[in-house]
Amino acid sequence: MSTVLEIEQAIERLPTSQMLEVADWLDSQRGMIAASESVFQMLDDEEGTEGGSQWLG
Length: 57
Prior knowledge:
The chain has about 55 residues and is mainly alpha-helical. The protein has one domain (about 10-55). The protein has helices spanning about 5-10, 15-45. The longest helix has about 30 residues, at about 15-45.
């Protein structure tokens, strides 16, 4: 499985209990990404606009 479409199709074939486990995992990943983005934004802000957005791209 290497594409989003393939992953989506595989998830759709899962039993409900396993699909809910995947959903919980995705929610936790989303939380970590949001936390990381806020830290990276803070680091970019501390460096000022001269350095660009080293952490967030």
